[in-house]
Design brief:
The chain is an all-beta fold. It has strands at residues 3-5, 10-16, 23-30, 33-36, 41-44, 46-49, 51-54, 59-62, 67-77, 80-85, 94-103, 108-113, 123-125, 137-138, 151-155, 161-166, 180-184, 187-191, 200-207, 220-221, 230-234, 241-248. The radius of gyration is 29 Å and the shape is rod-shaped. The model has no long low-confidence stretch (mean pLDDT 93).
């Protein structure tokens, strides 16, 4: 909720006489501009009333780590811009909002995932306008474990957003489905559609006389079943019990 009022900011302009040496006057010019010079950093969230000009060598670090930095007038970016994405936060990323956003050729953008793995198809709105970082854009290259390569749709020049296409987590289909059952080699094989990976396979074992219990406490998760879409389970023919399986989500 912080507000920085830059509406009366400006600079002093010196006036000299005809010899170009003698200072005759200083004029305060108010241009409502907060200037971030080389070596300085503007960071955080909130509202800046006025304009922002970030020079070459400056850093604009948006978010804490996510959240909105709003500039009521115009922004000119000439240095390094860093934003963060955290899918568990609301909002899920840093965003710079302004009346107009100018990106100089010296400006660069680095996007860092500070959260867990990302669902494929997730969109992150980094700017409220189309922007063009000709100086370079760096997006997260892999999932947090470094084992899966991210593929992005870079829509910055269209609407100021990026979207993960692949390399992350596939969204889980939450519509109930059937378990496909087969028997081979003394095993019972259970499988379900790949888009249902993330569902829990549960098992219940009772005597033949008891049959299926309707008590949820009698169901137990099959270890590791949320990361696969099939299980192969040995059949024990030395008991007179009944084994039941079901799938639940989440």
């Amino acid at each position: 909720t912080a507000v920085l009022d830059a509406s009366t900011m400006g600079y002093a302009s010196n006036q000299y006489d005809s010899d170009g040496v003698t200072l005759t006057n200083q004029i305060l010019i108010t241009n409502s501009t907060l200037e971030i010079v080389s070596g300085q950093t503007l960071a955080g969230i909130g509202i800046i009333r006025g304009n922002v000009k970030a020079d070459v060598g400056s850093i604009v670090n948006i978010g804490l780590p996510t959240g909105n930095l709003t500039v009521t007038n115009n922004v000119e970016l000439g240095g390094a811009v860093t934003v963060s994405i955290v899918t568990s936060n609301a909002p899920n990323c840093s965003e710079l909002l302004a009346h107009n956003i100018i990106v100089d050729g010296t400006a660069t953008l680095v996007v860092t995932n500070r959260g867990t793995n990302i669902l494929n198809g997730t969109t992150f709105q980094l700017f409220n306008h189309a922007v063009n970082f000709t100086g370079g854009v760096t997006l997260p290259a892999t999932d947090p474990s470094g084992t899966s390569t991210y593929v992005w749709n870079n829509n910055l020049t269209t609407d100021g957003s990026i979207q993960l296409v692949s390399g992350g987590i596939n969204p889980v289909n939450t519509t109930p489905t059937n378990i496909v059952v087969s028997v081979s080699g003394g095993n019972i094989n259970l499988s379900w559609p790949a888009d249902h990976t993330g569902w829990r396979l549960q098992v219940q074992t009772n005597s033949l006389a008891t049959g299926l219990s309707t008590n949820d406490a009698d169901w137990f998760d099959v270890s590791g079943s949320t990361s696969v879409n099939s299980e192969s389970i040995p059949i024990n023919t030395n008991t007179n019990g009944a084994v039941f399986y079901r799938m639940v989500y989440p």
